[in-house]
Specification:
heterodimer; A: alpha+beta; Alpha-Beta Plaits; Elongation Factor Tu (Ef-tu), domain 3; 6-stranded mixed beta sheet; 6-stranded antiparallel β-barrel; 8 helices; B: alpha+beta; OB fold (Dihydrolipoamide Acetyltransferase, E2P); 6-stranded antiparallel beta sheet; 3-stranded antiparallel beta sheet
Chain lengths: 368, 124
């Protein structure tokens, strides 16, 4: 199947982006249009100033009707029924065996109108999953991914920049709150959220309005464009999971330390398996810091440092800007999950020494 | 447009080679460093016996790891520690900063490499 283009595809070419296929879309990995370019500058812009991402590839599925809460609470691990309106909730779709179909952000407008934002690569699978488990729940499920554009403005100065374009007082937003407000005199959905570990906003609108907003932010406010390359290093530094890496159809969220997104006090698909796994954990997601030289990449094998027996694998690893040590996330056999345990990582022909550490690679500075 | 130096030999996998006697000094081309982006890690397999076209080291940017392929067979007799400690030197000047030296076991293999003109034609 030919890769799709987001509504901002022409802009990516204009700003000299290196394009790659991701989740079925041609997406910018990094840009080359300023005097200093590349992933590291984009990463630091988000940490110290502000950066702009095209995330229109993400999927938007609307669920509505009288039974929306009952249905979603059965489909999603977190408790959507108890969650407040106008606030984002993180959750997962799990299969009966507890492994993950996808993770998602839930925008609960009202008890009978909810937006689910899902991973680009999983939109079709998620939509089918939702339809096939609809059963007798009287709900309407609509995939509106193609007609909705999305950008993310991330970084400590994101609020200052965006405030120029709206009369709404953005400082009244708390972290994870969302509202429909006017930006550039167009109605848009705005949430104070993101996937970078920084303060910032995710903005959804009609395709043409999002293009205008994008142009204004880049041309008038000179916001630095950021590609998927730094989106991944930023979410990794903030220790957020990525589907296909820390969670997948062969990984259970309890293994990935996502218990906060699982409400065991209600019924949902996969609950029994997750409850069992929680009590019988055999492997766990840990932070890893390399002691010897090297960079651990996704898929590299972890071994017992004495016997060389396999004990797990790397899910994501980088040498990221502002860190002197190479860091990684990975699954290890529970016996090796204790802090400071020395393990080996198979990198090319060598076994490289590393230690288990916490997953707090940075301190997050969200607003309250 | 990436820079290509006359007088060096090149592999199709974007390594350059400078030959002095039976020693081949190896680095990566400007085209290679441009496609990689910011280099954050370099490694050479010190003392390893390597075969033409097989790995003799690695070069990594933030987002990806690439193998350095041996342009000739032989033994890796030296690795440039300055580059290992300062990987960004590869971005600054990939031709002034060699990565490793190979003591060649078969100098006839040099005939398999490309001169600057031929290399230019594959850098498109």
């Amino acid at each position: 199947m030919e890769a799709k283009k987001t509504i901002l595809y022409d802009r990516h070419l204009k700003y000299n982006a290196k394009m790659v296929e991701f989740g079925g879309f041609l997406m910018p990995i990094e840009y080359n249009y300023l005097s200093e370019n590349g992933l590291s500058f984009e990463h630091m812009a988000v940490r110290c100033d502000c950066g702009l991402f095209d995330v229109s590839h993400m999927g938007e599925i609307y669920v509505s009707g009288k039974y929306t809460m009952k249905y979603l609470n059965y489909m999603i691990t977190s408790n959507i029924e108890k969650a407040p309106c106008n606030r984002l909730t993180y959750g997962l779709f799990c299969m009966e065996d507890g492994c993950v179909v996808d993770d998602l952000m839930v925008y609960k407008y009202t008890d009978d109108y909810v937006l689910l934002v899902v991973n680009a690569s999983n939109v079709d699978k998620d939509f089918e999953w939702l339809i096939s488990h609809k059963g007798n729940f009287d709900v309407k499920i609509e995939n509106k991914s193609a007609s909705i554009g999305q950008i993310a403005l991330q970084g400590p100065n994101a609020i200052k920049v965006l405030q120029n374009l709206t009369k709404f007082d953005l400082s009244s937003f708390s972290q994870m709150e969302f509202k429909e407000i006017e930006i550039l005199n167009k109605k848009m959905l705005v949430s104070r959220s993101g996937y970078t570990g920084e303060d910032g906003f995710e903005i959804y609108g009609k395709n043409e309005d999002i293009i205008d907003l994008f142009d204004c932010l880049v041309e008038k406010y000179k916001v630095r464009l950021c590609g998927l390359g730094c989106r991944d290093t930023l979410r990794f530094e903030a220790s957020m999971p990525l589907y296909g890496h820390e969670i997948s159809d062969s990984i259970k969220p309890v293994e990935a330390c996502l218990n906060y997104a699982i409400a065991y006090d209600k019924d949902f698909i996969g609950k029994d398996a997750l409850l069992y796994t929680k009590e019988h954990l055999t492997r766990k997601l840990v932070g890893i810091e390399l002691i010897d030289r090297g960079i651990a990449r996704a898929g590299y094998e972890l071994v017992d440092i004495n016997t060389n027996e396999p004990i797990g694998f790397i899910t994501t690893g980088y040498l990221i800007p502002n860190h002197t040590e190479a860091l990684a996330l990975g699954f290890v056999d529970i016996k090796y999950a204790k802090m400071n345990t020395i393990i080996g990582i198979k990198i090319r022909h060598n076994i490289v020494k590393a230690k288990i550490r916490d997953r707090k690679f940075m301190i997050k500075k969200y607003v309250k | 447009m990436s820079k290509i130096l006359e007088g060096l030999l090149y592999s199709e996998t974007h390594e350059w080679v400078k030959v002095e006697g039976n020693i081949a000094t190896v680095g990566v081309s400007d085209y290679a460093q441009e496609s990689l982006g910011s280099v954050v890690y370099v490694e050479g397999f010190q003392d390893a016996d390597v075969a033409q076209g097989e790995e003799c080291g690695a070069i990594e940017s933030v987002k990806a790891a690439s193998d350095i392929m041996a342009p000739v067979s032989g033994k890796v007799i030296e690795v440039n520690n300055e580059v290992l400690d300062n990987p960004e030197l590869i971005n600054n000047d990939p031709y002034a900063n060699w990565i490793l030296k190979i003591e060649m076991s078969d100098e006839a293999e040099l005939n398999n490499l490309l001169d600057a003109t031929k290399y230019q034609s594959i850098c498109k």
